[in-house]
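Consider this pair:
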Amino acid sequence: MLDTYGAIWNRILLRCPAASSFLARDWTQNAFRQIAERRRWSWLLRFGQFIAPPLYNTGRVNCTNFSTTITGVGTNWDQSMVGRQFRVGLASPMYTVNTVTSATELDLDAVWGPPTATNVPYEIYQCFFTPPNDFHALVTVWDPAMNWQLWRHIQQIELNTWDAQRSSRGQAYVVAHRDYSRGYVGKIQQPVKAAGCGATPSATSPVAITPFGYTGPADAIFSVQTVVGGQTGTATYQWKKNTGPWTTGIITSADPQDLQDGVQIYWPTGVDYLANSVYVIVCTAGSNPGLPRYEIWPHQTAAYVYPYLYEARAQDISDVGTVLPRYIRGDVLLEMALAEAARWPGPSADKPNPYFNLKLSDIHTARAERMIMELERQDDETYELDIQFQMPLGFPYATPLGDSSWLQAHAI
């Protein structure tokens, strides 16, 4: 049976009872974090996919200088476009779609810098990709269709030298670090009825949900008003964010329906919703430092997938539901934590720590280091880190002239 976080820090208290449970937990957490970040362990490797949707360019757009709002003519934008890139021609920068307000209005992550453009063609596609929340570093990105691995050593300064307009399209062979994403992870409250409104039964309201959190950069209030009363699927409603315009003519549904900024609602069945009932959804903005964002170049405008392996950042062992990996023994964490305990003089001069002994701390440290080296040897049997392969001639392909079958049939 594997050791647990609780069992380890309790064993520390058995040897160092002068310490509090908070100290014992902290020493254990620190020990695990030091081991987890010591090397690229095999148990931290994960599989992921950068999935590029097809290019969207239906209709035309109006772009106003120094405004983040883009209005469309004949467009049908939806929430799936949030996070994709927006551009007009080759002479303007690449922008990212921050929010989609309606089928004909979206907001960019920065103000439109070029002169105002009216009724011009545009493109929405994805060339900047963000990995999962547990991401630490890329290991490899490859293209199964073209049978090659993408370069990872190219920087933005080189891409800007080769293709500042980003006019190259087609099969990609470079994945380059771009920047960090803006991570908004706010909260949404359940709809609250405004005074004088109701439904039968009166306790039933639409239900607010979110697939990944409220993504708006500021606090907001969403107002939802029934227009035509009746059962789910018959009743209709309209909604707006803050003092913005109403989005009208929406039929209630028991399936989640997108509003904006990650907010969705659905309408429970078996209810007669009253016309002109108003519900308010309060959203509180939140942010995080974001995640690395990578550019895949040349830009792929067709539906495509690039699988990749990445090194994950280990969860804190104190997180709810986290278990100690079976490849990390509990006695190693215990030795590292006891080294900390032996360096702790105690809470005060009047209450010294009987376990305090710097020589003993060195003994625990040396013992832990021998154990970690053994863990590394065992991990090398699963995932060898000491071998590196040089790419032939620097090409991204499997080989410069062909694959392994070609090499077997030719002498080079």
The radius of gyration is 28 Å.
